Model the fold of this input.
Amino acid sequence: MHSPQHFSRFAVPALDRAMTGDLQRKIDRKTKPQGALGRLESLALQLGLIQQTLSPKLIDPHVLVCAGDHGAAKAGVSAFPQEVTWQMVENFLAGGAAINVLARQAGMKLVVADAGVAHDFGPRAGLIDAKVGADGTANYLEGAAMSEAQCAAAMNHGARLAREFAAAGCNVLGFGEMGIGNTASASLITHCITGLPLAECVGRGTGLDDAGLERKRALLAQALSIWPERPEADRPVDNDALRVLTRFGGFEIAMLAGAMLAAAEARMTLLIDGFIVTSALLVAAQVAPSILDFCVFAHCSNEAGHRLQLGWLKGEPLLDLGLRLGEGTGAALALPLLNAACAFMNEMASFESAGVSEKT
Amino acid sequence: MHSPQHFSRFAVPALDRAMTGDLQRKIDRKTKPQGALGRLESLALQLGLIQQTLSPKLIDPHVLVCAGDHGAAKAGVSAFPQEVTWQMVENFLAGGAAINVLARQAGMKLVVADAGVAHDFGPRAGLIDAKVGADGTANYLEGAAMSEAQCAAAMNHGARLAREFAAAGCNVLGFGEMGIGNTASASLITHCITGLPLAECVGRGTGLDDAGLERKRALLAQALSIWPERPEADRPVDNDALRVLTRFGGFEIAMLAGAMLAAAEARMTLLIDGFIVTSALLVAAQVAPSILDFCVFAHCSNEAGHRLQLGWLKGEPLLDLGLRLGEGTGAALALPLLNAACAFMNEMASFESAGVSEKT
Done:
């Protein structure tokens, strides 16, 4: 059992659904056949409920990218060397990564945080120092990836940032990550929380070949087997997600989980990216199940386990473009659909206002 | 057989694929695992080939919405009364329809054309007068929907507009439509050109109930049965798509087909919307098969036959949001993905430029 004193409490509200009827009526009076805007309509309804208004709007959208290194990366769970984590953080800071380009395109503010990259960046403009461990996590093939105090500290860093965004007026937050080895971490977390077979939760990450995938599966099975407190095969841990996070997590995953919980607490819309971000959500949703009402699933990743996570969470992704990059790229690509959902609610004419005849 | 003298010729170029290798190399050198941007990568490749450049960009995007009325609408093929066509055109002109809102959101210029609405709008700012018939098409339950001369005139109107856009610099054109009864028309066209069973090509349109759907199917089977030149069940007409268009088409569908052909001739990117727009493309693709290389399929509509059309054309839609509104709404919603594909090609760093290590 984890020691509850380490971890902050989060009070994620239950979504008040009293406005559902009024929102649906507004949607249905727009000059279109009922339901003809498909998923945009359910999205508009959700945004209206989150914001408790008939005229939802997105204010100052941010995407938070948390980076961290993984002790297990040295054991060969990734196709890329560990140094790529800090090099990609430098790429973020220089503006040249995919998320820089796509966030700019979508009008999202990109915030990059070092949750525990094994590299000394020094004080740097544009990089949030949220470093929990100077060398990344410990190797879960040998023991716990982090201490409870570290896990709680990473979550608190994320929560603090989300609260800062909310205080400044931002009401929609996308989540992204960078960390060589973090699909492995996400696979273990997903298996432990959902109880889905480990092998099915493991994918090719940044591009392992068949042999690499087999090695990754074997290493992760081993990581699980040496954990004395591992869940039984037929019984996921459920209410002890923080124990799983501490054992297998990355600092960036813990930071994201904390940021998500605080963002939902502040009634923001959470724009969930791919496999690793969703593993953070699996943890957060065990801590506070009502967080899911605040989540929009941006896309379905090509990383094998993401579809399983979405199925388990009953999440309906907006996009299905075969992305498998992380960094929050799916969240940035989905933002225009959220903007469109708000725009049709706020700007489209109704049958009455436009003088259009109705269905006979 | 149609009389070839009525119809303009279109010279749609074959796509020169010589740059494929260079484009793929540029995509693969970007700081991401190979293939990790999924569908955005194939889209970037296609845009590069269409524009014959390693740095594709979208210039002055337009969406052309063609409106027309259908003689068969009076027979009860739609859930909405025919007057909704002109009322919705008024709604477009007033800025209150879904496509107004979504085109604005996407930064697309909306152009609305009256291809043959059964309503006298008079001269109106913002409405292109391309009226081929003052009362809409004739009822194909009694004879041909239009004459060959009318069909050719509608196509020429579309072609002229597309050429004007191209001449002004626009290089991406979305297509939309409005016309009560036009899913019925699109169903007949789709059946005749693809040979797919008529019943499967018929859907609920703006929202028919089960009884309405059955009636629509029966009426369309009847329309087909009274056509002396109907194709045999096992042999679609193939090379005589213009004969099908003349028999069952809407003026707006013919206008769209002409606009598509001229747009591809001018090497624009064609952003294809839903079921009715795709029926126009089925015609255009029989006239000039290489047009398909210039097409991006914006989305898969919830109108039953659209998935069949996409399958037949081997079109891979970008979005699958359960839309079934038409008006070009899917095209407007997909445009940000095309912008994203161009942006990553033009703005992302390469492994070399960012100093990022590669896969081991």
About this structure: Chain A has 14 helices and six strands. Chain A touches chain B through 60 residues (CB under 8 Å). Chain A has a mean pLDDT of 95. The first strand of chain A starts at residue 62 and ends at 68.
